[in-house]
From TrEMBL:
The keyword Zinc applies. UDP-alpha-D-glucose binds at residues 29-32, 62, 78-79, 154, 160-162, 169, 315-316, 320-321, 327. The active site is at residue 167. Plays an important role in galactose metabolism. This is Galactose-1-phosphate uridylyltransferase. GO terms for cellular component: cytoplasm. It comes from Branchiostoma belcheri (Amphioxus). Residues 37-52 have a biased composition (Basic and acidic residues). Fe cation binds at residues 183, 282, 300, 302. InterPro entries: GalP_UDPtransf1 (IPR001937), GalP_UDPtransf1_His-AS (IPR019779), GalP_Utransf_C (IPR005850), GalP_Utransf_N (IPR005849), HIT-like_sf (IPR036265). Residues 4-177 form the Galactose-1-phosphate uridyl transferase N-terminal domain. PROSITE patterns: GAL_P_UDP_TRANSF_I. Its EC number is 2.7.7.12.
């Protein structure tokens, strides 16, 4: 008789309906020993205020401008923008193999808090709510004349973040980036087949199955998606069908602050370090596409953390992943269970309470 399939033991591929690609799941690989590269754990003794850090209140930035003495969030134009509003057009392509197109846009940076030694999970719910309101405002503002407004946070040195001060970036572009285009096409196709938005159906499915849930409240659900690539990747989904961040109601924003704090405390508690990740929001396109048919879209956030085994061993996306297909070493269900079972009280607060 053939052996019964066990996803935690038997390798298989899973389909990512948002991106339209596949991931190889080979959970038994976690058993192999590791003698490869180890990263430095994140720095613990960051000063609260560093006058030499260009993101701090009153500090001087690279362009010579002095930051205000801000006491909440602080938004400024990136001094080294990858997208500028006025780049000249490359003109018609001379050959189908040498295609270029115009790229215009705007890049901003938003500090979450005046303190350098704080991160989102350690901020109060009111402070996180302010960050959410700013994200929505920036989306509205830059969305008036850009097709795509990408709000993202790059956290942790292991993840390429250049500055420990809590902040996010916003890159707004006159074109749809690749990830946005793939999600747009795939959600559109699903909607035309099923007459229902993909991620609204997915929310309901995960609420019912209950095997990949990390945290939930009345308005939000966080899961390790069935098709996750990064070891502890999560997907943040609203209960209601919502196209973009500015469409969230006040109570949905409060609930988002709650779910964000709970998720990020769990992340930090996993290896008892400030957990590195890249996160970002995806919603319906904006600019001249704002009034297009967008009902196939559902607002969501992705968290892509690179750590795998410990605070110092990350997942390398090299070799087979680069040349063939993404691969993961534990199942989405195993990762969700691990995160779900972690306490929601931040380890630093717990330590303070014990002292
Ligand atoms: P990251 O650590 O996520 O790269 O964010 C820091 C951003 O802040 C980065 O994009 C900008 C950098 O260009 N920055 C300024 O705009 N001015 C400065 O004086 C320092 C950093
Ligand atoms: Zn997405």
């Amino acid at each position: 008789m053939a052996e019964k399939f066990d996803p935690a033991e038997h390798q298989h591929v899973r389909y990512n309906p948002l991106k339209g690609d596949w991931v190889l799941v080979s959970a038994h690989r976690m058993k192999r020993p590791w003698s490869g590269q180890e990263e430095k754990p994140p720095e613990e003794d960051i000063p609260r205020h560093d006058p030499k850090n260009p993101l701090c209140p009153r500090a001087t930035r690279a362009n010579g401008k002095v930051n205000p003495d801000y006491d909440s969030t602080f938004l400024f134009d990136n001094d080294f923008p990858a997208l500028q509003p006025d780049a000249p057009d490359p003109g018609p392509s001379e050959h189908p193999l040498l295609q270029a197109a115009s790229a215009r846009g705007k890049c901003q940076v938003m500090c979450f808090h005046p303190w350098t030694d704080i991160t989102l999970p350690l901020m109060s719910l009111a402070e996180i709510r302010t960050v959410i309101d700013r994200w929505a405002e920036i989306t509205t503002d830059l969305g008036t004349n850009h097709r795509w407004v990408q709000v993202f946070e790059n956290k942790g040195a292991v993840n390429g973040c250049s500055n420990p001060h809590p902040h996010c970036q916003v890159w707004a572009s006159n074109f749809m980036p690749n990830e946005a285009t793939a999600e747009d096409n795939n959600q559109k196709e699903y909607f035309s087949k099923h007459q229902s938005p993909m991620l609204v159906d997915y929310y309901n499915l995960e609420k019912e199955k209950r095997v990949r849930i990390v945290v939930e409240n009345e308005d939000w659900l966080v899961v390790v998606p069935y098709w996750a690539v990064w070891p502890y990747e999560t997907l943040v989904l609203p209960r209601r069908h919502v196209l973009r961040l500015p469409d969230l109601t006040s109570s949905e924003r409060d609930a988002l602050a709650d779910i964000t704090k709970r998720l990020l405390c769990k992340y930090d508690n996993l290896f008892e370090v400030s957990f590195p990740y890249s996160m970002g929001w995806h919603g319906a396109p904006t600019g001249d596409l704002t009034d297009a048919e967008n009902s196939h879209w559902q607002l969501h956030a992705h968290y892509y953390p690179p750590l795998l085994r410990s605070a110092t061993v990350k997942k390398f996306m090299v070799g087979f992943e680069m040349l063939a297909q993404a691969q993961r070493d534990l199942t989405a269900e195993q990762a969700a269970e691990k995160l779900r079972n972690l306490p929601e009280l931040h380890y630093k607060i717990k330590r303070q309470q014990e002292d």
